Amino acid sequence: MGRTRVPTAITEAKGGFLTHKNRLRPNEPVDVREIGNPPTYMSKEEKKVWRDLVKQACPGVLKLSDRLLFAVLVKMATRFHAGEKLLCAETAMLITLSSKFAMNPADRSKVSVDKPKQSGLALFLQKKTA
Q1: Model's pTM, two decimal places?
Q2: How many structural domains are present in the chain?
Q3: Residue 20: inside a domain
Q4: Domain containing residue 39
């Protein structure tokens, strides 16, 4: 059985296409829409966990088309945060889902993100203090 395919956004964020241009996926559908707010059917606590996990996710990875799988991750994470006992298989699924969204320490360490651009004012103020 082969490896599970890594999402293009994660491969691109890791710089995988810089060294292996032949692996580019030019015909892959691209969703540019952000994941958005939590679904209305979620409880107050699940919505809180949703927002927290969105903040933790690497920029550009979570998209609108990921909402269903991300909702499963949120529901499991909510149970975990509430102190519920998770079965071994449920814990493994929580870890796997986190990995799919590059949210565990090993995956996060592989993702490179551009530094935010500084405004002209910030650059000017840095020169003044230096």
Answers
A1: 0.67
A2: 1
A3: no
A4: 32-109
